Amino acid sequence: MTASGQPISQYDTSMPRVVSGAVLLVVALLVMLSIDVSWVAETFGFQKRVDARVPTFFIRMVFLIAVLAGAFISFTSLSYYKRNRVMLAPWLFLSIGLAFFLIYVIIPIFQSISYSFTKWNGLYDVTGTWTGEWVGFYNYRLLLEDPNFYTSLANNLLWLILFMLAIPIGLGIALFLNQTVTGIRIYKSMFFFPFVISQVVVGLIFSWAYNPEFGLLSEIWGWFFCEQKLNIVGNLTTSCSIDPPSILGEAKYATYGIIAAGLWPQIAYCMILYLTGLNNVSPDQVEAGRLDGAKGWKMLRHVILPQLRPATFIAIVVTVIGALRSFDMIATMTQGGPFGSTNVLAYYMFDQAVGEGVGRYGYGSSIATVLFFIMLIYISYFLWRMYQDEKTEH
Amino acid sequence: MFPAPIEKSTSSVQTAYKVALPVALLLWLLPLIAIFLTSIRPAVDINTGNVFGIPSEFNLIENYSAVFQQTDAWRYMVNTLIITLPTMIISVGLACLTGYALAIYKFKSALPIFFVFVAGNFVPFQILMLPVIDLSNRLDIYNTVPGLVMFHAAFQTGFCTLFMRNFMKALPFELIESARIEGVGEFRIFWHLVLPLVRPAIAALAVLIFTFIWNDFFWATVMIQDDASLPITVGVRSLNGEFVQQWQLISAASLLAAVPPVIMFFLMQKHFIAGLTLGATKG
Asked: Scanning every residue of chain A, which has its alpha carbon at the shortest distance from the alpha carbon of B279?
């Protein structure tokens, strides 16, 4: 018997299992690598090569699972594994998820950065060779002379600053709703509504609301500046002392219009963070504060806000990330226009790289790289804070 | 409790509060209410600028069925489900495994690896876009639903791992220790002991991922060009071009696209909110 109470015999490598696992691994791997779309199309009688792509993918996945199963069977049957189980098991648990995440998320970051030093339209020639060329810092030099880049950068800054309004407004609404009257739960959920619906839908709603002819805003505008009259022929006509502005149609208003639309769901998100935070505020401290004569604003500043710090931290993180990720709304509401005035880095990159007829992979990647490094400041800050928390916990 | 409970104030303040609540809600949801009213109007109301007035005809059924008859809204919805559900299963499943490894085992690289997942979760999408297109092309799944699902599942694994790891960290570790001393295998501990305990986390992640993927627009635009496989968000956006100025139909379609996440939220509210706080504030 060993320390963990298992019979010694179980610690021996069971050779048959190791061998059968290895055989499964090798065979499945060979099959997986030899299957290709053309073969599947021919064998299963698909008319077009394109139609065979999804079936091929599923067949490959089945064999990939077999490869993994083979690897696990033989590896866990080794006596080396059995002796070091507690040390090796976490790597087995991690392997698939980590590999998947590295392939689709981490490695692409570095690939994108390397693309930014090339001139490439995303294509390969018939033999599968890359058709781009290395151009060093050429794309970055172009970037510095591109007025659209500066517009995008300025708009990103504007988004960042104005999006921060979501935090105090969210806190305000949370304080307003933090009561226990009947039906308050329904009110809280209804206030949260804008966050649940898709940004595309929010974008469409606001495009309509901003429409100067028959939108919500023009209607409200009409209450103040317009009157309806019967003209000589007897039709109802509207005349306004000041015409309603076309918010999305004018370069000087458009970005503000989109940011206002974006704030709507973001405020809801911050509100819910603060409602959860307020729920956890210690009643004793509030009572103690009351006894010391703290009320209203003073109580909020000195007793409540310090306790809401975790909520504020997350609110800042998600708001910054939301501001820098703004894409869906711009794509739905203005597509960067009028005259590129609502571009942000995220949208401009998309437009340059895969927008209609442009295909500048290298240039697009350089924009993405700039955006990534801006985001990296916040990511590092977030990780640093997490690291501090982890240290104090142990 | 802060602010002071309203029950303790004078009755006039209480009444004022009870009046203010619905008024505030009405103002807050004004865009949504207005768009709903628009979606049940006939076209003539919209052209005459009747926004808040009583619709001249109630066209609720006409407008909503027109969306289904004149467009592929139904197919877009089905496509979205085909994209959303597998993503949900794969990413939550994988995160149970990775979260378990990072929370329960004490090894040196646990924290750095955890930070890789967290950092990757926050990067801008644009830095991933071109390499992911290229990778999908080489795997022969670009412009297919599985191609999009693979990316979504991998990316969401980051967020799910962040959440799952923090949740599992709060489990009583002695339970796992004692199981180990009993000689229970590592995978059995995970399957029979830990998984039943993290059910609330699985539920929270499932609703969140459902909503995230249902509402995704960027990746669907980038990864799918084929009209037959488009999800509802992209579909609704393109309807905007098809129904030029037919706002009653555009708004009906938009509201339809919003229905499933809203239902999901109402059914699973507690889990949903627990997930959104990134597991940092409990309760």
From this structure: A314
